[in-house]
């Protein structure tokens, strides 16, 4: 079980360290989150440990710049002392004014729309030995910390990386209604009880089954498994629709346009900064 105060987001400007434990369905050991700083601060640092594999995420939103730094933490034993070393996996910097993003790795920086270099970089992360654990860690951050992706490009990029990893590690094929997130029915169809947020629109009432059969194209999440805090609901969004189509192209989920969140973070169809 995990233990967390229900009003976590109300701990507004408090500085704290919080530990959360969540068992993984496919693993015997639990994941643990440690948060340094506060969830509402401009800068926050989150450490995630699952099955002896650890990652550290630093998210900074200051003025016009949003930055995500992702590290893998390796432990070695030297005599009787454990030494923990952080290795930067990547850094993503987004300029809100210019609506451009740059990725840095091993001291080299390049524009996110440099498709060849971006694909090589992110593909190596998605296919790495510990990527499944990284995907679980990002999903845990989404579910338990509920950081709003529509407010932070760094958070949005982190969520898309997590979804891409989980798409790669497990392809979701919907065969019956039990595999559909309940949020799909709460926001869509004739019996919807919740309203779409921002620029989201519900699936047509008479086309809900077709929408589900098409794996909820345009909803922010994995197939019909909604990631609620990507865009704030389980509705269809223009950016998510464009991104989903990019992920169904010739190279699928490992295409650079899918890996980098094209349609949501950059090259958006509307004037909305993060085109949910």
Please tell me about this protein's structure.
The chain is an alpha+beta fold and 276 residues long. 26% of the residues lie in helices and 28% in strands. It has helices at 115-126, 131-145, 153-169, 182-187, 208-213, 228-231, 238-246, 256-259; strands spanning 16-23, 30-37, 43-50, 53-62, 65-78, 81-95, 100-105, 108-111, 221-222, 225-226. An eight-stranded antiparallel beta sheet has the order 1-2-3-4-5-6-7-8. Strands 9-10 form a two-stranded antiparallel sheet. A hairpin with a 2-residue loop joins strand 9 and strand 10. The chain is globular, with a radius of gyration of 18 Å. Mean pLDDT is 80; it is low at 1-29 and 171-178.
Descriptive tags:
alpha+beta, eight-stranded antiparallel beta sheet, two-stranded antiparallel ribbon, 8 helices
Shape: globular
Across the major sheet, the strand order is 1-2-3-4-5-6-7-8
Terminal residue distance? 32 Å
Oligomer: single chain
Per-chain topology:
Elements: E1 16-23, E2 30-37, E3 43-50, E4 53-62, E5 65-78, E6 81-95, E7 100-105, E8 108-111, H1 115-126, H2 131-145, H3 153-169, H4 182-187, H5 208-213, E9 221-222, E10 225-226, H6 228-231, H7 238-246, H8 256-259
Antiparallel strand pairs: 1-2, 2-3, 3-4, 4-5, 5-6, 6-7, 7-8, 9-10
């Amino acid at each position: 079980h995990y233990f967390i105060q229900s009003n976590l987001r109300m701990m507004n400007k408090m500085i704290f360290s919080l530990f959360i434990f969540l068992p993984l369905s496919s693993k015997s050991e639990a994941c643990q989150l440690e948060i340094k700083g506060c969830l509402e601060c401009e800068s926050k640092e989150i450490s995630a440990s699952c099955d002896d594999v650890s990652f550290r995420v630093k998210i900074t939103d200051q003025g016009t710049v949003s930055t995500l730094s992702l590290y893998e933490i390796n432990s070695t034993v030297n005599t009787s002392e454990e030494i923990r070393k952080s290795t930067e996996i990547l850094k993503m910097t987004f300029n809100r004014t210019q609506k451009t993003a740059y990725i840095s790795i091993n001291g080299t920086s390049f524009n996110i729309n440099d498709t060849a270099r971006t694909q090589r970089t992110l593909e190596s992360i998605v296919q790495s030995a510990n990527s499944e654990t990284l995907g679980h860690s990002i999903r845990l951050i989404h579910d338990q910390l509920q950081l709003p992706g529509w407010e932070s490009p760094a958070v949005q990029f982190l969520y898309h990386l997590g979804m891409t990893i989980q798409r790669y590690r497990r392809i979701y094929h919907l065969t019956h209604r039990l595999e559909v997130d309940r949020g799909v029915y709460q926001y869509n169809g004739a019996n919807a009880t919740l309203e779409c947020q921002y620029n989201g629109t519900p699936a047509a009432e008479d086309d809900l089954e077709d929408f589900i059969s098409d794996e909820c194209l345009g909803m922010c999440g994995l197939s019909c498994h909604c990631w609620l805090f990507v865009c704030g609901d389980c509705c269809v969004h223009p950016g998510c629709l464009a991104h989903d189509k990019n992920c169904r192209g010739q190279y699928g989920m490992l295409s650079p346009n899918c890996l980098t969140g094209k349609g949501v973070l950059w090259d958006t169809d509307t004037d909305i900064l993060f085109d949910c």
